[in-house]
Amino acid sequence: MSISARADVMSFAQFLVWLHDSAFASAVRDSDFLFPSIECVHVLAITLVVGSIAIVDLRLVGLASLERSVAAVTADVLPFTWAAFGFAVLTGAALFASHAVGYAANFEFRMKMLLLVVAGINMLTFHLIVQRDRPRWLEAHMTPRPGRLAGLISLLLWVAIVAFGRWIGFEHVR
Amino acid sequence: MNPSVQAFSDWLSATPLSMQIQTVSWIIPTVQTIHILSIALVMSSAAMVDLRVLGVLWRGEPLVAVTRRFLPWIWWTLLVLLLSGATLIIGEPERSLANPAFILKMSLLAAVLIVTVVFQKGIAGDHLFWERSAKRRVNGRLLAGLSLVLWVGIVFAGRWIAYVDLGAG
């Protein structure tokens, strides 16, 4: 048991080195053009993810879009959010690969990933709650209490995710 | 660099406020974070309006309901962008003022503001202004498409500010 666990840790470290040394990662790392270009798309995708989630969260908290129901707002916005999130993950993976070993050890990067997981859990929990009590979410000017809490938590998490993401750029990751 | 821009930059970076921003290491990343969060709100609000005009999102709602909801966010958040952007310029005038990426970003911003005002003027007088005729519909869609392209350009140019090498030139 402990031997296989150790083998897994080793293989993850080896995976990072392999990723870092891959032809793709080297190309991104060594080019003056590729890294910033991929980063541009990454930042664009993040602005759309965070902004569109903020639209949903502000509705949940009860600060905006009150004339529409929570269900109506999420139905229009979330597909857009997921599409942007797809681009953010792909470009983020490419940027990560270019300095895989360095980013994996970077505190800000680890915090960003951790908070992304927490934001995902928050969202899943919220969806499960909504599905149990669907009619209440179909009315305009209505924000049931669990929605307010989930929206507030989500807003705070995404502010922190953007902040940690920006701070990664101030560390000299090699 | 243009000598007068250089002189202004030198003066600005010697002011006590600029020195303060330069010395306290957390100020620039914090203000940049506020700047990015504000861009997220502006980008997404503009995208919601533009995609409604293009018939992609919010199809079950009148256009005017969507613009009433999102256009005010664009204008109020631009104020935050102006303040956070000005703080970044005061802290690092050399990094931005003579930077071609920064100049491009400001030009694209001016263009998108004109596009947004033209669009908003139309709908302010008549809720169905952009839907009254086939020609208006096409023009409205062109404005929406242009707005999307310009906002994307602003984000890209903004990120490139960090990479344009001002070195000796």
Describe the 3D structure:
The complex is a heterodimer of chains A (174) and B (169). Chain A is mainly alpha-helical and 174 residues long. Chain A is 81% helix and 0% strand. Chain A has helices at 2-21, 23-30, 34-61, 70-98, 100-105, 107-132, 145-168. The radius of gyration of chain A is 19 Å and the shape is elongated. Chain B has 169 residues and is mainly α. Chain B has helices at 3-13, 16-23, 27-53, 63-91, 93-96, 100-125, 134-160. In chain B, helix 3 packs antiparallel against helix 7. The longest helix of chain B is centred in the middle third of the chain and has 29 residues, at 63-91. The mean pLDDT of chain B is 93. The A-B interface holds A 32, 36, 39-40, 43-44, 46-52, 54-55, 64-65, 67-68, 72, 76-77, 80, 159, 162-163, 166-167, 169-170 and B 29-30, 32-33, 36-37, 39-45, 47-48, 51, 57-58, 60-61, 65, 69, 73, 152, 155-156, 158-160, 162-163.
List keywords for this structure.
heterodimer; A: 174 residues; mainly alpha; 0% strand; elongated; B: 169 residues; 78% helix
Give me a quick take on this structure:
Chain A has 174 residues and is an all-alpha fold. Helix content of chain A is 81%, strand content 0%. Chain A has seven helices and no strands.
